[in-house]
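Pasting two entries for a bug report.
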Amino acid sequence: MSASGVSRLSVKKGGTLPSALRMAAVTVPTAAALWSAPQVQQDPPSSPTDSDAAAVAPVLLKMQNIVQKMLHPESGVIVRSYKRRIISAVPSAFTGADLVQWVMKHLQIESKVEALHLANIIALHGFFFCVDGLEVPIRDDGTLYRFQTTYYWPSQNPSDSDFNYAVYLVKQVMRSKHKIRLLNYELTNLSKIKMHLGSQWKEITYKAEDDYRILKEQKRVAREVLGSQEEAFWRTKRPPPSEPNINDISLTRLYTERTRYVQDSNVWNATHNHTHKTIIIIL
C-alpha cells in the first residue's frame, strides 16, 4: 500500500485479462502514472451552435483533469482501505467528506453546497461511484466511494455496445451462484439483446465465460474492485428506466435539473443558485 493509500492489483498467471478487464487490472487507480501522463488535448467546438454531442468531449476532458488532480499521490484525495463492523475491509476507497474537503480546498470553492454539486456532476458522468452500488448523491460524511478505472472514464470513450453489454450481463449471471445479481430491468434487457444478437450469442457466451474464468483466478480484493468498477460503468451507460441516461441528456438540462441528487430540498434550493458558477468551473 502506497503513501496515498492506492493499492496495486496483481493479475495471476494464466492469461491476460480480456476486454475491459485487461485495462482495469492495473493500479486501482495508478495515481502517479495518471498524474505524470500528458493531458489529453482536444480542440473546442468551432461555434456555440454546435450540437451537445460535439460540446461534451471538452467538458469531459475538464472533468478528467480535475479527477487526475484528485488522484495525485501526495495532494490528492485520500484513498485507502476502510474496515466495517460486519464485512471485511473495503479496499481502494475514499469518503465523501474527504472528497468535499478536497474540492473546496483545491478548486477554491467556498460553499460546501457548491462543492457537493460539482462532485455530483462528476460522479454522474462516471468518474467515481458509491462502493455500495447505490445510486446515491455524494454526501459530506463517511459514505465510501471509489474512483473508476481509467479504462471506463467517459473521456476515454469506452465501448458500450450491445455486444459488450450482453457479455457483462451473462457474466453477472455466471457470478450469481445462489444470489440473483441482475435487476428486473437488466433481465429484460438481456432477453431483448438475446433476440437481437441471437446469431452472435455463442460468441457472447464464450467471451463471458473467458472473462469470468480469468476474473475468478484473481485475488479477492482484485475481484471486488474490478467487479464494482464494471458494474458502475454499466449503471451509468444502461441505467434503470426511472433514471435518465447521461448520454441522452443535454449538459444544460443536466446541470439545472439533476441537482435533486444533492441530499435534501433545502440543499436543492441553495444548489440551484450555485448552478451557473459550477458550470463555469467545469467549462
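Entry 2 (this is the one that rendered wrong in the viewer):
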Amino acid sequence: IIYRVNQRREEVIAEFRERMEERRAAVTTRLNTIQQLIDSKADLQGRMKENRLHSMRENMLEDIDTKLTQLQVVEKETEVVFECDTRQLEQTISVLGQLIEREIISTPDYPALLQPSVSVGKKGTAEGELYWPQGVAVDEKSKLIYVADTRIEYHHVTDIRSGYVAYDYHTGSISVFSMTGEYIDRFCEGQVNQPCGIAISEDNDVFVSDTVSHCVYKFKLPKFQLVTKVGKEGTGVRMFNSPRYLTVTTDR
C-alpha cells in the first residue's frame, strides 16, 4: 500500500510538472507576442509620424493597445492558475502523507516494527555487559556483531592544600556477539583507552578509533592481533584530535 501511495504521489507530481511546463511555454509565447506588438507599435509610431497618417495611426495604435490589454489579462489569469495548482499540489502531498501514515499505523505488524530485532549486552562491566557502547560493526562473513565499549572509572585524590582533585581513567574493549545477541568474547582490554568508531574491511581487518589516545588501531581477525597503530594528537599529517567514527573504502 505504501508503495502504491508513493507511486501515485510521484505520478501526481509528474502530471503537475508537465502542466506547469505547458503553461509556462504558453506564457512565454504570449510574452514574445507582446514584445513583438510593442516593437511594432514603436515602429508604427515612427512611420506614422513621418508620413502624417494620423487617423490610420490612431486606429492601429488603439487596436494594439487593446490586444496588449487582453494579453495582460490572460497573463494575470495564468498566474492565478499557477498559484491554485501549487496550492492543490501541496494539499495533495499533505493528503498522501496522511494516507501513508495511516496505512503504516493500521498495519498489523506496526507494533512489531517499533521493536528491535536483536539486542546485545546490558549495563555493566562484566563479560557480556556494556558500560558505554560507542561504535558497532557487523562482519557479514562470520555473522558477528562487534561493539566498541568504554569503561570510565573515576578516582578522587585528596590534597590538603587544594581540597580534592577528581580525574578519570578510561579502559576500553571490543565485545563480540552473535547475530542473535549471544555474548561470544571480549578483546583489546588494556590495548585501547576509549574506543569509539569501529569498521571491518573485506580482508578481515578491524579498524578502531581511540578518542583518548588520538589514534586508529588496525587489528586482524579472528583473534584481534594488533597489526599497526596510526596517529597521535595534533593537527598535522597522520595526526588526530579525538577521532570518533570511521569507515573503510575498497576503491583504494
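Dev reply: Rendering is fixed now. As a check, the viewer should reflect this: The beta strands are 133-139, 144-159, 163-178, 183-187, 195-200, 205-210, 215-220, 225-230.
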